[in-house]
Amino acid sequence: MTIALGIETSCDETAVALVGSDRRILAQSILSQIAEHRPYGGVVPEIAARNHLIHLRPLLEKTLQQAQLSLDQIDVIAATAGPGLIGGLIVGLTMAKSIALAKSKPLIALNHLEGHALTARLTDAVEFPYILLLVSGGHCQLLLVKAVGDYQCLGTTLDDALGEAFDKVAKMLGLGFPGGPAVEAAAKQSTLRAQQGGKIQSFPLPRPMWGRPDPNFSFSGLKTAVYQQASSLGPVGSQLPLAAVQDLAASFQAAAIDCIIDRVDCALKRIKQQKITLKGLVAAGGVASNQFLRQKLQALCGQYHLPCIIPPPALCTDNAAMIAWAGLEWFKKGRQDGLDTLPRPRWPLDPNFTVSYS
Fold first, then answer.
1. Mapped to the 3 state alphabet, what secondary structure does the chain carry?
2. Residue 358 has pLDDT above 90, yes or no
3. What tens digit of pLDDT does each residue of 79-100 get?
4. Each residue of 102-121: pLDDT tens digit?
5. Cβ(307)–Cβ(335) below 8 Å
6. Rounded CA separation 23/26 (Å)
7. All residues at 6 or more sequence positions from 187 whose CB lies less than 8 Å from its CB, including other chains
């Protein structure tokens, strides 16, 4: 069995994992920085980098101890090299280079998005090709995953990522940080009230890009509409009526996920026209943890008789197991990166993609 060490420090999670080529996660550790960033309502790059620097080595030692392995028993070192916050990327990639040099191990410097793209092959052994819906705080894309290293972008956001929209809406409504889980929890309370016969308020919100022939996304207009509705309840930033906040959160979540489902449906229709036989629809990224989104995607896949593969929530958010697995995928293909590899704060999976407004 080949064993990969994965290091992930692209944003505000410090993560280390050991994964075997038999698709077993031997050990993993994730240190969240939510408490450090919560007072600011978002991730502060300098704070994130400093925390990676403080915690990465102890986390590495803890993970090795959990697996009862030493660095000498590791076959390949994989680390996120981009895209992400440059300070954090430098910390993680430098640690990986140091280990690779000291222990004479091959280094693979990975695209963070590729880690998300290949996670379903770790959890479910899905075969190529498949459609990937990548939804996170910084990314919102639809990709055709043809093989390791071969990704065709079908559509992307024209402005905000969905996770960012969730964070901004949560901040408007005073729900706290991170916004995705906070908005989802508030929306659930609205649904429960409705099921119990309580009165709920449905806020009219737009569905940007609905019905467009190109599978791109847009969320800035929806975010603005939520702000306007929140302003009608009282000064934004003040304590708004709880029931109304929950109902507005539910209205936003429904509108945003309607947009996602419509855009995925658009992409699936395009692929069908090209007579490509898909092996499944995969969702990844932090927003893929949202249960309402999962239910809607499963229902859409049912219409297409297509497997819907969504990794467990812990493997949808940023983690090092996905980086270790992607490293193994590339290691099998003979890849090895040099110690002069630089971190890349911007790094598209499909460098040839240009936005289509057809």
1. CCEEEEEECCCCEEEEEEEECCCCEEEEEEEECHHHHHHHCCCCHHHHHHHHHHHHHHHHHHHHHHHCCCHHHCCEEEEEEECCCHHHHHHHHHHHHHHHHHHCCCEEEEEHHHHHHHHHHHHCCCCCCEEEEEECCCCEEEEEEEECCEEEEEEEECCCCHHHHHHHHHHHCCCCCCHHHHHHHHHHHHHHHHHCCCCCCCCCCCCCCCCCCCCCECCHHHHHHHHHHHHCCCCECECCCHHHHHHHHHHHHHHHHHHHHHHHHHHHHHHHHCCCCCCCEEEECHHHHCHHHHHHHHHHHHHHCCCEECCCHHHHCCCCHHHHHHHHHHHHCCCCECCCCCCCCCCCCCCCCCCCCC
2. no
3. 999 999 999 999 999 999 999 9
4. 999 999 999 999 999 999 99
5. no
6. 9
7. 246, 249, 250, 252, 253, 254, 292
**pLDDT at res. 238:** 82
Give the pTM: 0.94
Spatial distance between the Cα atoms of 71 and 76, rounded to a whole number of angstroms:
10
Q: Which domains are seen in the chain, by residue range?
A: 3-122+314-332 (3.30.420.40), 128-310 (3.30.420.40)
Neighbours of 184 (CB within 10 A): 21
How do residues 192-245 score in pLDDT, each as one tens digit? 999 999 999 999 999 999 999 999 999 999 999 999 999 999 998 788 999 999
